[in-house]
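Request: Give me one sample?
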Amino acid sequence: MKHAKGFTILEVLLAIMLLAMLMAGAYAGIKTATRAAHAGQTQIDRTNKLRVTQEFLRRELSQALTLPYEKETDGKLIVFHGKPDQITFVGPMPGYLGHGGPYVQQIVLERDGGTRKLTFRHMLYNGYTKDGHDKVDSVEPVVLLENIDDATFEYRGLDDTGKIGDWDDEWTRNGVAPQMIRVKLRFTRAAALSWPELVIPVMVDPSAVGATVGFGPGGF
């Protein structure tokens, strides 16, 4: 027994210290890799949401219908109304969102604290009325995008001579739809996203007025 060899207390302490250092390094590496994976997945989710939103806007706005959804006090029918921060129109809804038939739709840039968000509202066209609880802006909005620093909607259509006009941030020609809609948007720095300029051609005849004049909602 006097020739048996073992570890001294100092050697054991050194081995424990080295093991602890290896475990700490491994834990830090795993934690860093996990954070990187989560950050990558978050960025992928944001990019996918951006792509889906662009596809949704392109689909809905390009299929706008010239159906009157409101009537001015002078009797003029409104088929499309565009502001710098709001678009209201009638169009078909995707099958997973609607129950068939046209819907009054509204895309709005709303204030959200110090930033802005892009929201969407819709209401079945049949039975839609201008006043009271049946107005589309009374519907709870669906948030499409958040963390927007600045954005605007712009419109382009035919001028009085029949030629394509310049871009304008308002569209008030009640019985006519624009030929093109442009969505300009810039995200906050924290969002780490870039919005490619989106120009959407409207496929309806911009000079046509809805064929349902006299039979639309609210007794047109």
Notes: Confidence is low (pLDDT under 50) at residues 206-220. The longest strand covers residues 142-156.
